[in-house]
Amino acid sequence: MNFAQIILPLNLKGTFTYKVPDELLGNFQIGMRVLVSFRGKKIYTGIVAEIHQNDPETFVPKEIISILDDSPILPKEQIDFWHWISEYYMCNLGEIYRLAFPSSLKLESETYLKLKPNVKVDFENLDVNEMYLIQALEVRQLINVTEIEAFIPKKDIVKTVKSLIDLQYIEIDEKIAEKYKAKEIAYLRVNEEELAGNSLPQILLSLKRSPKQQEMFLAILEKQTENPEKPIRKSEILDEGNFSHSQLKSLVDRNLVQEYFLQKDRLEAYQGEIEEIEKLTHEQLQAKKEIDEAFDEGRNVLLHGVTSSGKTHIYLEKIEEAVESGKNVLFLLPEISLTKQIVQRLEKKYGKELGFYHQKLTDFERVEVWRRIKNNDIKILIGTRIALFLPYQNLGLIVVDEEHDSAYKPREVSPFFNAKDATQMLSKFYAANLILGSATPSVESYYLAKKDKLKYVFLGERFGKVKLPEFELINFKEEQDSKKIIGNFSLKLIDEIKKELERKKQTMILHNRRGYANVIECETCGYVNYCSNCDVVMTYHKYSNEMKCHYCGQKASKPKVCPKCHSENLNERGVGVEQIHEEISRLFPDSEVDRMDVDSMRKKFAYEKLYEKIEEGETDIIVGTQMISKGLDFDNIELVAIPRADSMLYVQDFRAEERAYQLITQVSGRAGRISGEGKVLIQTYNPQHSVFQLIKENNSDKIYKHFLEERKKFLYPPFVKLIMIELKHRKEDKVNRSAQFLGSVLRKYLPEECILGPEKSPIGKLNLMYQYQILLKLPRGKKYSEMKNLVLQSLEEFDEITAYQSIKKMIFVDF
Length: 815
Ligand SMILES: Nc1ncnc2c1ncn2[C@@H]1O[C@H](COP(=O)(O)OP(=O)(O)OP(=O)(O)O)[C@@H](O)[C@H]1O
Ligand SMILES: [Zn+2]
Fold this sequence. Notes:
This protein is an alpha/beta fold. The protein is built from 26 helices and 35 strands.
């Protein structure tokens, strides 16, 4: 008899044993999807992880209902990778499965289906089951898979649903249906109707008094006549420097010229010619040579290239080499950004052989990418962390850009894993090469490189021998004492910004706190406004005039009087980016000041629009949170200012200094990319702080040495391994008791010095759940896996207590 171990999309440990009916044995392989029922009536799509002959002794396994694929949907390398993640990050295979697969590939009882809007169904070509389902959906808008069992035999359900999805008649109902759109670009055209109504000489006559407008109108008309198929980019007209925005605006107001927007991806065909990549500079060539050598020895690479050193050019060379040798490439980004230079270039060169995969795609789009990857139609995939799980074949190169970015290991969605670290294993399973790249590598990667576990390749010079920005520290205490400040800005800093404005240069101001004020406090009784779901004060957002909890998203109106003592004496405390924006706008009333943070960028295309505005020089000062530090490559920014730099350091987190260094260096990297005149002004109460001093010196070896010494002294990674266990429950005393119990079990097995806690988490309540945590500091090396097994054993003992089964457990490995 034959049995199979099946992975189910459930948050349960391990795989599940099913019997393989003889009639299915003909084509039954690991990596195929099967339909099974689990715990009673519910059906699920599972994945075959193992085939064997071991009849289980303690129970009678159920039979697999049907096979859904003709060939494995998941390659062996991915199954190995899933097993590794599950073991290393102590999570369940089912959690990985849920994250990895688009919903329509893993239909289950609770999946809801609906008709696609405005479909015309060709009933003649449907089989009986398909017809029933369509008819049912016409009567009721939503039907879930369980309900379908009433009129379609179980074994045919998935086949029927799949075929109707393929025909695009039906779709999975998704709450997050907001479709991702590519960047919109502004285009111009002459208003044909005006031209038809009035003769050209008439129009020109009407523009007699404004020769510039006349000239511009003719320029647009000329381009349009020359090549009617080719849209005229607005920037193309304005960039020549001949015409101004106000002239264009008059033409648009007179209805002679129309401005319209097109999505970037719709235009691929027009954008035509692929330029050769510029030749690598001497330094870049040297770096590439070192990478080639490392790859020859089968080693992975950490590419540490200062900001604007041209890491992109090196990636491009390696990517194109891989593709030429018939291999496929995965390019991983922390977040998808279509404005990136590399994306634009690859898009031009590889067109349809380039794929994108990220959280913002709809389910249908995701399935489409799966299909194309499986058919080997995509050579280069650009994606975020979920792209690790696509069914690649022949993967030859993985590049992880901005490898230090914490978006690779979010703590909000399970399973918890670090995508950057996981690529090291993925590359192993595929025997692919790996480049981790950053201007500010994570301390862990740097350490691995220095230990020769990764090949360290350093690019210390900006492209074109452009100078790196200079750092200057402003002692804010002194400025304050001598009354040389206005609000959060020293007169010195104000003066520097003024100079930039006069020189027509752009300035960036970084303040990494959302909102307007951190708290609203009652002067009379000291009341502060806490979120009703969380143990967190609510942040005041002046622009939207509301209080927001940054942890659970809860909103409330701003209190007019103190809810406790009814005093009207309410005060704003703590400075958020909105306030910095307001101050700057007041200090420079004649300048265009824009704000870039998650709150202001929520509207559709807000980011794209602001990006273009900055690119076209319409913005003078950009105020923003860490968002402004990411990958922007503008050429007219010279001054970067950080008015309240201390706020980055005093955070309870052993990575606070590392993060501050990365953020300051990244944002400073936006300055002087062409001119080499970049300048960074840091206002601080502690100019002597070692991190500021080291940043000023700009010697990366020294900085990392400092970080590593601190980590060693206080026993933090990379010198120990951290595992954080967080327990959650709606009742505080229950979660407290359970945490004490787990602590005592762990202490039975592990040495005392490895265990910190249990204690209340820094955020004691989140979304109505009380949280307690236990931090484990475990030794590296062989001992680590031994101890991890003991941790597992402790967790199993914990799970045996019935009273604690309602406690939610979260395990963060290497967080
Ligand atoms: N060999 C080259 N020839 C021509 N231009 C180059 C070359 N290398 C880099 N550049 C240009 O230099 C600029 C900086 O390069 P790039 O954006 O790749 O830097 P980076 O190392 O990724 O920096 P960051 O980490 O700040 O994003 C870009 O505008 C790029 O086009
Ligand atoms: Zn909250």
